[in-house]
Design a protein that fits this description.
- By secondary structure, the chain is an all-beta fold.
- Helices cover about 5% and strands about 40% of the residues.
- It has one helix spanning about 35-40; strands spanning about 1-10, 10-15, 30-35, 40-45, 55-60, 75-80, 85-90, 95-100, 110-115, 120-130.
- Strands 8-7-6-1-10 form a five-stranded antiparallel β-sheet, with no helix packed on it. It has a five-stranded antiparallel β-sheet with strand order 5-4-3-2-9.
Length: about 160
């Protein structure tokens, strides 16, 4: 699970991989979730960095899956057996924004990376926990952070 708050115009990238990776590295198998892409009109999921999206959700269908330039929004991302779940606020089934399932899931995910595209993004209260069980983070308190997974952020 990854929980974070973000504020900005567009393009938060959160990627999950088996090894440390860089954006635009198409040799690694990764899941890349791009919140607010295409000028904050869509959210996309890719299986390679900056590749053609395998799933897209537009602003009209999923308005909660977009960024807000004026205030921080709290998001959470979970991956379990190839199912990627994006939620808002507290972790619960009621707060799920979107889900997508890979029929050929990438296994052994150990790293997460954050990035942006052409606009500054402010991040805060980032929590990275076990990737396979996001029910345990439901009571996470950002004032008492705990690191339980490896995180790699590279440019």
């Amino acid at each position: 699970i990854v929980i974070f708050e973000a504020k900005g115009l567009n393009d938060v990238f959160v990627a999950f991989g088996q090894t440390p990776f860089k954006t635009r590295n198409t040799t690694n198998e990764i899941y890349e979730v791009n919140i607010g892409c295409y000028e904050n009109s869509r959210t996309a999921i890719r299986v390679q960095s900056l590749d053609t999206p395998i799933a897209q959700f537009n602003k009209q269908e999923k308005p909660d899956a977009m960024l807000n330039p004026l205030e921080f929004k709290r998001f959470w991302l979970g991956i379990n057996k190839g199912t990627i779940t994006l939620g808002k606020g507290d972790i619960s089934a009621a707060n799920v924004i979107l889900e997508w399932t890979d029929i050929y899931p990438i296994s052994r995910l150990k790293y997460v990376g954050f990035s942006t595209w052409n606009a500054p993004i402010l991040f805060r209260n980032i929590y990275v926990g076990p990737f396979t069980d996001y029910t345990t983070a439901a009571t996470w308190d950002p004032t008492k952070p705990k690191a339980t997974a490896k995180a790699a952020v590279k440019k």
